Amino acid sequence: MAPNDSAETTGNAADEATGTMAGRRRAARYVVPVAVAGVAAATIGLVPALADSGDPDLPKITAQQLIEKIAASDTEQLSGTVKISTDLGIPSLGGLAGSLAQGGGDGSQGGSGADPQEKLTELASGTHTLRVAADGPDKQRVSILDSAAEYSVIRNGDQVWAYDSKSNEAYHATGDKASGHAEKRGEATAPDSVPTTPKAFAEEALKTAGPTTSVTVDGTAQVAGRDAYKLVIKPKQGGSTIGAITVAVDAKNGVPLKFTLSPSSGGKAVIDAGFTSVDFAKPAGSSFTFTPPKGAKVTEADDAKAQQQAEKRAPEFKLPGGPAGLDELAGGKGVKVIGEGWSAVAEIEAPGGRAIPTSPKSGDVPPAAQQFLDSFGDKVTGKFGSGTVFKTRLVNALMTEDGKVYVGLVTKDALVRAANSAN
Predict the structure, then answer these.
(1) CA dist 241 to 86, 215, 342, 361, 412, Å?
(2) Taking the domains of the chain in order of start, what are their residue ranges?
């Protein structure tokens, strides 16, 4: 398409541009904050638009060309500092994430306090500073910094180490468990198991192309001292909790430098992740080596898994689509999609048709989980009967008393409408 062509594009060029990124992951993924079942069925239609003149003054580019630039980027070496702020409108997930997922997140019941699957979920709330480094697909390091401690995940080939300086605990995985491509929970222990850079967030937003989203280039910016174009992604449909996604893309090498997701309800961003400093030179080899400090408690991935199975520590409180149920949902079993694009809602049948436990009286809901759910739940009624809507600023879920879940990146009213239409 010519650079000045303003016609909407939803065809092969857009599909090919996103194919490089999408091929490494599933075309449809489930977005699931802890304890809230979630599915994001978002498609992207490309609306080429010329970048407005701004500061810095960069050559004009279309949205299609900019996405192609992201997909074609061959930058594999970098180091820098990333600031991530997340405001889903839910309580802090600090210790609750591990409690819900494993029945205890401090390693006191056979797990490890340094397990990346638990520690990295802390990025789902609050503001965090990360130090990152990469040297190709097999050497990566992510460190979460705070005032008194540091948590790091280091991948070097088929070896993954995670270390929590606060508890002096280390977690070690080898072979397939360190590849970062394993699908099952407990096996994706590498840094890419949770988005930690603007590029990872951007790839999630740019997986597929379709007619329900407009994508434009809206001016320029400077991020971490680098010139960048601003790619803006907006739903065309109403009812979505997402207002817009803005990705600042390095004008020189196509690397996303900043990712901002703004809610349709207004207010501060739900997710704001961006480099505050970045260097595209080869990082020092020492960044990807690790030896446990003297006296550190070291947990091997295989040992942790075996002990969990021996103790039968599967969580009593399971929500369809939650961390323990992603694999079942990802295959589409028991899932029906109502609507399309950004307004799509997933209707999920509870396993065995059982009603979702929402009362501590049943004994199925841990007190911490009940307090968490009550903090953002609203009772609703309709043709479907009655249920509770659990809200975040991004993903909302309606859980009915007859054992169904309606979930999506949509408002409470949109969930109720979807549930009514299915009955």
Answers:
(1) 15, 17, 9, 33, 9
(2) 45-301
Task: Please say if the pLDDT value at position 13 is more than 50.
Answer: no
DSSP conformation class of 414 = H
Helices 12-22 and 63-72, packing angle to 10 deg? 30
Q: Of 30, 29, 17, 41, nearest to 341 (Cα)?
A: 41
CATH superfamily of 45-301: Lipoprotein localisation LolA/LolB/LppX (2.50.20.10)
Q: Which CA distances in Å does 403 have to 331, 347, 354, 361, 381? A: 20, 11, 5, 17, 14
Q: Which residues pair with 390 in a beta bridge?
A: 377, 397
For residue range 52-86, list pLDDT tens digits in order: 334 799 999 999 999 999 999 999 999 999 999 99
Confirm if 97 and 83 have CB atoms less than 8 A apart: no
Q: Determine which helix (DSSP H) or strand (DSSP E) holds 205, and give its type and residue range.
A: helix 198-205
Q: What's the pLDDT tens digit per position in 175-191? A: 654 444 333 333 333 44
